[in-house]
Fold this protein.
Amino acid sequence: MVHAAKASHIGGCLSMADILAVLYTRILRLDPAEPQSPGRDRFVLSKGHATAIMYATLAECGFFSLAELDTYCRDGSIFTGHVSHAVPGVEVSTGSLGHGLPIAIGMALAARSAGAGSRVFCLLSDGECDEGSNWEGILFAPHHKLSNLCVIVDFNKIQSFGTVAEVLNLDPFADKWKAFGWHVEEIDGHDVIALERALGAVPAPSGRPTVVIANTVKGKGVSFMENKLEWHYRSPSDELLAQALAEIGA
Amino acid sequence: MRTTFIESLSQAASENPDIWLLCGDLGYSVLEPFAAKFPDRFINVGVAEQNMAGMAAGIALSGKTVFIYSIGNFPTLRCLEQLRNDVCYHGADVKVVAVGAGYAYGSQGYTHHALEDAGIMSMLPGIEVFVPCDPMEVRAATRLIAGSGKPSYLRLSRQGEPNLGAVVTDPRKPRVLREGREVVILASGPIASRALEAAGELGGRGREVGVMSVSCLKPLDEAAIRDAVRDASLIVTLEEHILRGGLFSLVAVAYAGDAQRPPVAGIGIPEQGGKTSSAGSREALLDAAGLSVQAIVARIEQSLAKR
């Protein structure tokens, strides 16, 4: 998709691929035949630029056909470069960073009020943890004991213009969440068993909201993309695409 | 106005269990009756307007009608992108309610003066914008937006504003406060009381001056206004807001293409970038900004003399 559309953000797609795979095959209670079912779990993609992997996941899950992905970023397509709620299965449109968590908090409050047992999962990038709006939400959720809320941080350590450590260091990251009152799980974000265990434990027995800090690798699985900032922007040539597909065994 | 708003909202919430109210740690001595009656549907989110607006969208997208409440610029400009993306782009059923329109917070100073909010809110896609002039219009607008299913902005002044006219039949339609067809003053907000005083004074000088409250800035009922000004030799707009983006801009744009139309004289608060604001009551600040009754009368007479 990224190659065909000459689009970008493939590095941040690959870093979260395993997270989405576990969420959509093992965790989320969703019915592609009834995507608006009131009692469903919600998934809010706050790093709204990572659309190729999001749309591909939804297609694989049956929300629409794989063939529709060919229109990605093309004229007239619903499949925009930043995630769109025009796409079946997408809860909200994001793209400006720092918006997803407050929306997810609202959904978690409404779900708790409805008493249907729905859970809300929200995926943040590490770079967007620079946004003050996220910290407003991070303060709010434990105060209101939103145990049905789970944040996942795709902690690939590279943001738009440098490494997280260089641009605006988040360390000690887990300690910050703990100090705000969250139940914190730090895991290897490419270990599907660890992901399933951490995400499957929501709501946490402590009554706290959960954050899963998923340590990931930007460009995971493709040797020439791994940990390379430039793959936030580039789309692969024909040759590089062939190599990438061979490496990930697609 | 604040009290009328919360009474009207509480009544609507009694009838509709899906109405929620969020506030950004403001509303002391105003919101308590709602909070006491509906504790499960009231949240003080803290001093965090971006989170409040995003949360409101999330709750609304789960099937609720959500009001968010704070002072002037805080639930509007502070979280503008959340209102644009999370609320309006999704058509979420969120109502933004701001108190302290214009100079209502008087001596509190510039940060608490809401001078650009109505124009900025009007630019958001799919939103309805209400600037009521008196408690009767507040009641009607609150009832309407509570059931409209659309994003809305309700701009309130503070307290003690008198009723200026007869019963409101449709909050989306301009309301005649005083008959008169030679000059028609279109006013939005409680500044309409000064329009009535000016009209009375001009009436004493032999002018036939009508006053209409245009409480719904978006959608602007162009047909109703066009009908009201059909015989006018001058249209005047009066607002407690800068002219750019407010009532004057909306009216001027609406009639710009008409070949035959009276001129539109806009009276509002001057833009004062880079200049410090002085202390003063709302009344004193309005007078200093050129919105005293005498200044309004003089401006109208000047505009008529030019014709």
User: Anything to note?
Assistant: Chain B has a mean pLDDT of 96. The first strand of chain B starts at residue 19 and ends at 23. The two ends of chain B are 39 Å apart (CA to CA). Chain B touches chain A through 27 residues (CB under 8 Å).
